[in-house]
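Repro:
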Amino acid sequence: MKILFISHSFPPIIGGIENQNYQLTKALKESSQVKIIKNTRGKIWLPIFIPISFFKAFFLMSNYDVCLLGSGILAPLGSTLKFFHPKKKFFCITHALDIIFAEKKGILPKIYASVNIPSLKRIDKLFMVGNATIEKAIKFGIDRKKCKFIPNGINEKDLKEKHTRKELSKIFGKNIQNKKVILRLGRFVPHKGTSWFIENVMPKLPENIVMIAAGGRVSKNTAGDKDDYLNSEKAIIENKLEQRVKLFPAISQQDLKILLNTVDLVVSPNIKIPGSMEGFGINVIEAGICERIVLASNIEGLLDAIKNKKNGTIVEHENPEAWINAIKKIFKTDEKTLEEEKIKTGKYVKENFSWDKIADKYLKEMKN
């Protein structure tokens, strides 16, 4: 199969969509001919990238079987190309924000709702990264038959390494080799539940339990989710947790690997925020491939990423007591049982979320 892939955001830009587009195209190239038209200069370049990519794709499509768009932002581009190439098939990877952005207030969301949503309806097939995203799409009038859930994937070689607790202590800033360490990965935005967890769960946990929260901050001018970093800082100060909770709004890839391979527990305590949602929950998959114990909220895309008792445990969202009890239960479990659980988690993630298997799902759907 000859695939023309268009990505509005591609490495070296760092982010979830960027990594997903890169890893998917890399895996697709193993069995298909893939040509990539990519934006590697960030959002500021989009007004120039979109018309340039349209003209490139307009002439290239005659040599390709299908066009695969990296996100819903490019839906108008795809639907226009489809008008000129009606015999070709057009597909679009659709993330949660590609749908729910149309619900937000402001001029940009209104324009998006009137342009991008109708364009998504004209695409031949939408590859949704979560079932919750499909349900949102249906509410906007998108045909369920056009939607196919395909999860994000993971590459074990990119993350799994051997590291020591000494390295973890260095990141934390003091010796925590005898502490139980909780990690929360993800952007500092409200629906991730980081500030909620710090305020409602951490103060009620034993003193020997510490926490690291790492992820990017959201710019004030970014359309979409609001920044929640200051609320997390406030929760730490008000609950006198300065010695037990550390925030890292910018962390290197190497330090990320150290965290994922040394902490005792990874949490995704997401909460419900109107106008936002977790499309999939790639961070719990990253933790799983590194054989970490995982707890995740029972909402949205996390239910697609976590299969209860197979690669993590589902906990009732916004229920502090449920989270406190689940965490205490884990840390009371004997080491042998925990090690068996970690190995089982890693095996399940590898068997179900490796990029080669995810790429096969894309190819099968496009061939159909």
